[in-house]
């Protein structure tokens, strides 16, 4: 049986408040048989679940496409729910039943749809210098049964909303962080079930957040504005079709709240004695509150939620209560996590309870906070007294494994504390495990590095006074991140901010959103995120629209580079981070030894190559020709400048060799000599890396591409410094910023720049999935429409397994070696096909589930290659077994 399932609109399951003018539909097929391909589809959209008022009917469309079907001619109306369903025909022309009905609902589609006004706390209500967060409220009357109610809300700063005493929605840190001067998200909530006939009330909290609070390391404040504000519309639809709108206006009232201080970096101070209990209920007496003030502010920048919102994803229990040598009381969560602590206590009115969050204990086992720099990461709770009290923060998050408890009684119970893990609620898509426990812990650390740093923007680190959307880190890790989770909406939103913050001359800021000074832009490998990230999302998800969306930005960046160098085909000017944190750096320098002009020109060539490919995908023939020719010229200039006529690379570092090979900048004898030089350098370092941010993501991939899998495994499996597994042996639960963040003697690399949750080096995950397990995307078939299963056993591993929930469904590669025999389990989702390359196999000896290959349904061909057997196959699960070639 074949069925259509997992219907999605813009990657989302039944989304509320969508403002995409031409939404795209994707689906998967479920089949209990092999070799299923879609031949045609029919898609219907309607205003009712019974499809009595169809507004879109594609009819039968002869196409195997099941991703991103754009409803081009559909004229969407605001605040309207659209239902849709799909059926398909397979390659034998057998139709499926109609899928279950799914839906999406539009939100407010234009600034004119907003009739509410921005409101803020009067300056007389809150001391101008005070950090006390305001509360806002309004009562309203519902005179009869409501059939549908929606809340559209956003803020300057962060907000949390209550309706009739109950929190609205499950999102945190709303409205999220965007380039606030040009783009501000609003959220949509279904509040139908929270209303009552009669009197109702809505209340809101406002916090500084990224808009008004501290950002970066120079104690900057008010980067985007100096007053928090709220904008909200509640739309009530009655059974007779009448609509009532309750919006923010001067009818709202404002009061200081119990949140005395709230900062992303510093934490929160909450005085429970100042609680306005029941302030979001209709019966609350607000006569002492002040009228809200209208704040003149634009609505032209408003847009519906684009990214997957931040949510409380899971909870961790502390594993131990420690008493340090210095006498400090410390909770150990057992995991470097990002979020906050929820805790309960009992105290006298006015008694203070304080939690200081930090990542590691020092050499003696005491509290260590130096690496947080100016970030306080402290939550202070002032009790109201009279019984048991509970608290968790609202408008902050901390990066921590340990929590120092100050002011708590000695007879603590671990059950009174829970770590709430926050991150963007991305769909988990990847899994990896193998026979080596250290590699399994490395995979765990990579995943938790992504969890902790994908908090609405791809931050570099989640604990110190930084937490910024560094472009270099994002482009280095994006491919690995797309294995672990569905990051397409996450990066689509962030890349729109990149385009919004891009300089008029095409330069790209170091961090997005751009909050640093005017000179902080356009380093090679950092600014290249403008090109690399859209291309990667296109490749991993088959998302052509992201290339269309970002094309001007991508082109602007490449043209910026072209205008920089003294030679049009070399990039040899300007500031560059180089091979940041490379271990071959000079003393007291963060920049590795690889020549920065070399790195800049290599990335110039790579971005131009991707621009040519992007132009080809979008049918921009003239641009394709232009960038293809430009790439040839850059490559020629690179070889003239950095490669001798005899093919010797002039910059003799690991990173230099890696970039030349990864970006295809050397050929023939030069390529051979560059590979040989890389191996020579590895031998000199006893197979330890000296690469930094630029070279590390590609190092093992380059070795694999050159056939040096033994060298790649040697690097991967080193356990002494510097290596990925050194961190694991030191007890790391996330990826570190420095290979020796904690030295072998327990001392630290530095105080000022030593994050223990810094995902960039987690890019090795790409190698784990792509080469160890063998799941490889094919460039000509984006989104895994066709793909490779090509495992490369080695390093003494006896098994490895990886799964990837692609847009088409689950892909799986799982191999086991025992007594000279190998078994490979492969899963190919319906409507896709795969090529399997069985390593060290002889065709005559390969069986699928005990059968000879020619007798197996779904296997289209099988042939002997020099070192492997190549099999092409359709969808289904296959189990190949054979004896390894001697």
Write a compact overview of the structure shown:
Helix content is 21%, strand content 31%. The strands form 10 sheets. Strands 14, 20, 21, 25, 26, 27, 28, 31, 32, 33 and 34 form an 11-stranded mixed beta sheet that branches. The chain has a 7-stranded antiparallel beta sheet with strand order 35-40-41-42-48-44-45.
Give a verbal description of the structure.
A hairpin with an 8-residue loop joins strand 38 (775-777) and strand 39. The strands form 10 sheets. Strands 14, 20, 21, 25, 26, 27, 28, 31, 32, 33 and 34 form an 11-stranded mixed sheet that branches. Strands 35-40-41-42-48-44-45 form a 7-stranded antiparallel sheet. It is built from 14 helices and 48 strands. The chain is of the alpha+beta class and 886 residues long. 21% of the residues lie in helices and 31% in strands. The model has no long low-confidence stretch (mean pLDDT 96). Helix 4 (488-501) runs antiparallel to helix 5, helix 7 (596-617) runs antiparallel to helix 8 and helix 11 (696-705) packs antiparallel against helix 12 (709-717). The chain is globular and about 85 Å long.
